[in-house]
Amino acid sequence: MAQNANKGSAVYDSSFDAHSPKQLTLMSELHHAIENRELELFYQPKISVLDNRVLGAEALVRWNHPKYGLLYPDQFIPLMERSRLIQGLTMWVIQEGFAQCAEWHQADLEVALSINLSAKDLNNPELPDLISGIKGAVGINPAWITLEITESSIMTDPDAAMAIIHRIHDMGFQFSIDDYGTGYSSLSYLKRLPLKELKIDRSFVADILRDESDALIVNATINLAHNLGLEVTAEGVEDMETLALLKQEGCDLAQGFCLGKPMPQAEFVQWCQERV
Ligand code: C2E
Ligand code: CA
Ligand code: CA
Ligand code: CA
User: Fold this and answer.
1) Does 255 sit in the ligand 1 pocket, CB within 6 Å?
2) How far apart are CA 113 and CA 127, in angstroms?
3) CA pair distance 78, 3, nearest whole angstrom
4) Is the CB–ligand 1 distance for residue 236 below 6 Å?
5) φ, ψ dihedrals at 251, nearest 5°
6) What is the annotated signal peptide range for this record (predicted)?
7) pLDDT tens, 69-88?
């Protein structure tokens, strides 16, 4: 699947080998990870470039493995994406994320939540009903939730994906293109999708201060997104100089280690409260 070709996120472990004994063990244990409550969502703040307010968070899954310790998604998501296990993980993330976001809003913490979907989710005709069920059970306002999809995950079966995306959008959920620029897609699909946001992959953002062509790509992407009526988020902002340049270019939102790392839920709430 082309989706993993450029994850750009192999900061922790780039040596992924599906046939290693460790990976095979993990695969067999995934079934129990959810039941045993070993999965945990971390939340990374999304900041308004204009005034530094926290507008949202992205849910990023972690696995507290009893033997291997804290595992990052690059160590188990690609594996799960090869089977339908990923659909179970996605439903867990949605259930947990919706509940958490509803709780924040009840406590007057008004942050939106972004959740990552995989290619297999966009080929699952049951996804809209599953999401609708959780929405009703949790009582969440779908306007607070953005679902992140990648260009490659749409392109595996564009017609099926398009239909599923529109059904979920009709319920009031928002959509975002993640890792923009790393996958294959066409502008005609971009135009036909009910998008709210485009996220520039951090492989383009990281070097904009030093690399002229990266700076040009980021500038062009911001203009393209704005011309299509979309918000732009820059990923992987690691220093304040980069943030300043993004502000100059008119970028709307930013995510990155210099603004806020992914944090466990309690820490994220405290972090938000300390900022105001
Ligand atoms: P992503 O969706 O592109 O998420 C952003 C990744 O960049 C996260 O890695 C985040 O920790 C990292 N990051 C954020 N700011 C910076 C920065 O300033 N510098 C650098 N170098 N990295 C930064 P993480 O949490 O390891 O997640 C990796 C990937 O795993 C995600 O990439 C996403 O594709 C996938 N993933 C994570 N959680 C889920 C999930 O619940 N479901 C699915 N399907 N995929 C997930
Ligand atoms: Ca990425
Ligand atoms: Ca994402
Ligand atoms: Ca991304």
Assistant:
1) yes
2) 18
3) 9
4) yes
5) -65, 140
6) none
7) 999 999 999 988 988 889 99
